[in-house]
């Protein structure tokens, strides 16, 4: 698979997606455990991608 579009995305968008996923995970925590787990993993993943993108840019 070709993930070249990820190189063009700014690190700020990864951080925003991370916050959005973590907030939604908190909302779904008591409603649906599977959605909570998926959103939590996505939130952590987006924050790691943002950190890597920020670190590589300097």
Short synopsis of the structure:
With about 60 residues, the protein is an all-alpha fold. The chain has helices spanning about 5-10, 10-30, 35-55.
Written account of the structure:
The chain is mainly α. Helices cover 81% and strands 0% of the residues. It contains three helices and no strands. It has helices at 5-8, 11-28, 33-57. Helix 2 (11-28) runs antiparallel to helix 3 (33-57). The radius of gyration is 13 Å and the shape is elongated. The mean pLDDT is 86.
Low-confidence stretches: none
> How much β-strand is present in the residues?
under 5%
Q: Shape from CA axes?
A: elongated
Biggest sheet, open or closed, and with what strands and sense? none
The termini sit apart by 27 Å
Instruction: Briefly note the structural class of the backbone.
Output: mainly alpha
The oligomeric state of the chains shown is single chain
Count of helical regions:
3
């Amino acid at each position: 698979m070709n993930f070249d579009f990820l190189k063009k995305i700014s690190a700020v968008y990864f951080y925003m997606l991370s916050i959005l996923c973590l907030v939604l995970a908190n909302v779904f925590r008591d409603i649906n455990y599977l959605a909570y787990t998926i959103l939590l993993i996505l939130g952590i993943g987006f924050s790691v991608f943002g950190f890597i993108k920020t670190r590589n840019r300097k």
